[in-house]
Amino acid sequence: MEFQEIVMQRYAVKEFDNKKVPESKINKLLEMIRYAPSSYNIQPWKIIVITDQKLKEKLAPASWNQLQIITCSHLLVLCADKDIAEKIEELEKLMIKSGSKPESIKGYIDMMNGFEKSLTDEQKLAWSQKQVYIALGNALNGAKSLGFDSCPMEGFNSEKYSEILKLPANVVPTVLAPAGFAKDFAKEKLQKKLRFSKEAVFMFK
Residue 184: pLDDT band by 50, 70, 90 thresholds? Predict the structure, then answer.
């Protein structure tokens, strides 16, 4: 499937059919998400993959009981990791392990550390959450490219999710991406996507 077809055929599923997506396809999707771009390549996210039905049912009330949560095959909870300093340290170790010489990357690491120190705690969270949405794009289009469906969801209580999933304070649930096979599929959903015109969206100078 060409990328343009993927973009045009993807839509926000409101109810899945409860069927399980093969793990081979899920693993491919997770790789697509793992390779999502991020500023400085810091990758400030943690992504929780939930398949346990009882846990999904426990999370449902914190998601306004939307059907996607309990009918999906896999519930992806995309979280921002606001401990940017630790992510930089991890990245430095990974770069050295991959063959980079410490002295050759020192300037880059110093630049990232300077950026991190310039941010307040609120700014660290906001910046990390922006990066999470880049990964979300890979999740949504990646699922469709592999033959199944998804739905981006902000309608949930982040604090309740953190409590139920017992997450550390630096890991903040930001957006959900339940994935599976759509139950509500209808051809009319794809015949004409409702979007603003090119003139309304783009400004040419």
Answer: confident
Q: What are 117's two structure tokens? A: 């120190």
* Cα end-to-end distance, the chain, whole Å: 34
- Structure confidence at residue 189 (pLDDT): 58
Token digits of residue 76: 């992806």
The 3-class secondary structure across 7-68, one letter per residue, is HHHCCECCCECCCCCCHHHHHHHHHHHHCCCCHHHCCCEEEEEECCHHHHHHHHHHHCCCHH
pLDDT tens-place string over residues 112-164 = 999 999 999 999 999 999 999 999 999 999 999 999 999 999 999 999 999 99
Could you give the 3-state DSSP secondary structure of residue 182?
Answer: strand
**Distance, CA of 36 to CA of 175 (rounded, Å):** 15
Q: Are 121 and 96 in contact (CB under 8 A)?
A: no
Say if pTM beats, i.e. exceeds, 0.70.
Answer: yes
- C-beta of residue 31 within 8 angstroms of C-beta of residue 137: no
Query: 150 forms bridges with which residues in the sheet?
Result: 12, 179
Q: What is the pLDDT of residue 65?
A: 98
Architecture of the domain whose range is 3-184: 3-Layer(aba) Sandwich (3.40)
